[in-house]
Amino acid sequence: MEVFAEYLERIANPAHRARTKEVLEWVTNNFPSLVTRIAWNQPMFTDHDTYIIGFSVAKHHLAVAPERAGIIQFSDAIVQAGYDHTKQLVRIKWESPVDFSLLEKMIEFNITDKADCMTFWRKE
User: What's the CA gap between 19 and 90, in Å, rounded?
Assistant: First the structure.
């Protein structure tokens, strides 16, 4: 979590900072083999130097970016959880609960699906 400290400090809204920290700690604790890093000014997690998931803070939501393949794989579940999404990210409104079960599935999917991936991003 130390790698995310400066990023978290820059989040002006204390409630948004606390929520973001909660999510990042949850990923760190539940997936201790993932490497934490800041890239493109956002916290992200990698496995064998390939991207697994990233997060970013916006005014109205916490964005979760599992790559396009993760969005496609979990599109129905994302909508069922009450989140909206684009081709690349899921928007969790600040007042909405975090569906940690869905987050876990997205991370596990990327770890498994990218097990043999030798590039940072998928070749789509």
Answer: 15
Contact call for residues 47 and 34 (beta carbons, < 8 A)? yes
Q: How do 84-85 and 90-93 pair as beta strands?
A: antiparallel
The Cα 23–Cα 64 span in angstroms is 10
DSSP H helical ranges for the chain: 5-9, 14-30, 67-80, 100-113
71-121 pLDDT, tens digit per residue, is 999 999 999 999 999 999 999 999 999 999 999 999 999 999 999 999 999
Give me the chain's average pLDDT, please.
96
Round to whole Å and give the CA distance between 117 and 43: 21
**Quick one: what percent of the chain has pLDDT higher than 70?**
99
Is 47 in a helix, a strand, or coil? strand
Domains, the chain, in order of start with CATH, read 2-113 (3.90.1150.200)
The owner of tokens 């987050």 is 103
- Largest distance between two CA atoms of the chain: 39
Q: Rounded to an integer, what distance in angstroms lies between the CA atom of residue 76 and that of residue 29? A: 27
Beta bridge partners of 17: none
